Amino acid sequence: MNPTIGAAPLPFLLLLCASHAAAQPGAPPAPAPARSATLLSASLLGAYGAGGQFEGSDVNRFGLGFGARVGVSLERPGVFLGLSFVRYLGGKDSSGEYHTTTLNAEAGYDLLLAQGRVIVRPMLALGIAQVATIQSDNAGYPLAFHGAPGLLVGLKLVPVLLSVEARNDVVAGSWSNALTFMLGAGVEL
C-alpha cells in the first residue's frame, strides 16, 4: 500500500518540500563533500637559481633548472611532507664548468585560503647537493649538505596544482648559495 496524504503520494511530497527548501535564498548551503584527510601530489618544476660571486668567479653555479616534487599533505594538522629533486644547469668560464643538483626532504605547513583553492606554504628543504666542477684536466662531484627555507604559493584547480616558490638555497662548504625561484605544475589527488 502506498502511503498518501490526500491524493498525493508521500515520497512525492517529501521530494517537493526538499527541493523547495533548497531553492530558498536564506537556506543554508548543502555541505561540501567530505575531503580526504590525506592528499598526494606530484609536480614538475622549472627553476632559476641566482647564484652569487664565489671565490672570485662570477659564474652562476645554479642558473636554469628542472626537477620534480612528490609529497603528501595531511589535512589535519595541515602538514606537508615531500621529496624534491632539482638539476641546475649552472654555467662555465675559462676555468671550467659548474653545476648543482639537489635532493631534499621537505616539510611545510599548509595555510589554505579562498575556500581551500589557494595554498600558502612556508617550507624547509634539507638534503644533499652535488656540486660539480668540471675542468679540462680534472672533475669533482662532491656531495654537500643543502638547506633551503622558502615560501610556496599554490593554486588548486582540481586535480591540477600550479605553484610559484621562492627559496634560499644554502650549500655548506666551498660553493655559492642562490636565491631560487620555481614554477610548478602537477596534480593533487
CATH topology: Porin
Radius of gyration: 26 Å
**Quaternary structure classification:** single chain
Q: Per DSSP, what share of the residues sits in E-state strands of 2 or more residues?
A: over 45%
Net shape: elongated
Estimate the mean pLDDT confidence.
85
Overall tally of structural domains: 1
Please outline the major beta sheet.
8 strands, antiparallel, barrel
State the CATH class: Mainly Beta
Number of helices: 1
Query: How many strands appear in the DSSP assignment?
Result: 12
**CATH architectural arrangement:** Beta Barrel
Please state how the strands of the largest beta sheet are arranged side by side. 3-4-5-6-8-10-11-12
Intertermini distance: 47 Å
Q: What proportion of the residues is helical, as a percent range?
A: under 10%
The ordered H/E elements are EEHEEEEEEEEEE
Sheet/helix structural class: mainly beta
* Uncertain segments: 2-8, 10-23
How is this fold's topology laid out?
Blueprint: E1 4-5, E2 8-9, H1 10-23, E3 38-51, E4 63-74, E5 79-93, E6 96-109, E7 111-113, E8 118-135, E9 138-140, E10 143-157, E11 160-171, E12 178-188
Antiparallel strand pairs: 1-2, 3-4, 3-12, 4-5, 5-6, 6-8, 7-8, 8-9, 8-10, 10-11, 11-12
Care to give the gist of this entry?
By secondary structure, the chain is mainly beta.
Describe the structure.
By secondary structure, this protein is mostly beta strands. 7% of the residues lie in helices and 64% in strands. It has one domain (38-188): Porin (Beta Barrel). It has one helix at residues 10-23; strands at 4-5, 8-9, 38-51, 63-74, 79-93, 96-109, 111-113, 118-135, 138-140, 143-157, 160-171, 178-188. The chain has an eight-stranded antiparallel barrel. It is elongated. The two termini are 47 Å apart.
